[in-house]
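Retro notes, item 3 of 5
We never archived the inputs for the acetoacetyl-coenzyme A complex last cycle. Fixing that now. Sequence and ligand:
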Amino acid sequence: MIRVDRQGSVAVVTIDRQDALNALDVATLTELRDRLSELAEDGDARAVVLTGAGEKAFVAGADIKYMSGLDPEQAKGWGALGHEAGRLLETMPKPTIAAINGFALGGGCELALACDIRYASSRAKLGQPEINLGIVPGWGGTQRLARICGLGIAKELVFSGRTIDADEALRIGLVNAVADPVLDHALEAATALAAKSPVALSLAKRLCNLTLGIDHTGGLELEANEFGELFASEDAKEGLTAFVEKRAPNFVGR
Ligand code: CAA
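Structure as it came back at the time:
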């Protein structure tokens, strides 16, 4: 479930599916998209903080059990839903801040990348491990990671699928700061932003986003399509199934 709590003019959105480390299934991601869509239009919410429930995870990714049964068309729809949530975080006319309180992997890292600002707890672990499942990032990671950290770093992280700690995330610019407790830090920052002119802030965000260029949209569309197509491969089926069955994948190259 998704909780939205108000702290003055800051809206705190909490992804709460702790038995799966806040991994996003269809119901949770749909609810997240819908709440973000409402907050985008809500003049009383001047800044939005996104976080995960519990001590362990921000979001451990898209739900792998669900994905293991998808065909390419369904995977495209699944990718598109994640993209909708990401685009809302990236373009809503108010600042969005990720308070990364634990694992931010795959789709979790991608949602954080779509936020304007990222703060991590010292316990946070981040990464794009999709390659280990025989797939690729499908919610914007192939496009946004390079724009935030540079192409060389993005390729290394996306190709290797390795998980990094908060200090490394800070060093490569993936997060803006490491702070404990991270939610308090994010709330303080969001409250300070919420006191500024919403007109100037929304313009500042729109202008900063111009650097993304129209090709950003094309890149996201291409990723969404190819992510789906990949679900026709034996390796994607094997990688996703192996995770569900708690065994190592055996990739055959098709
Ligand atoms: N999807 C579904 N379930 C997940 C999940 C995910 N992404 N991540 C964790 N879970 C579930 C586990 O299956 C487990 O459930 P059960 O108890 O029912 O078996 C529960 O959450 C707790 O997880 P672990 O026992 O694995 O906890 P751990 O502390 O040993 O390991 C972890 C934590 C390293 C994060 C590990 O859970 C893990 O590797 N998770 C998968 C991370 C991942 O690969 N994410 C990317 C998904 S692909 C994606 O997001 C595609 C995209 O771009 C859209």
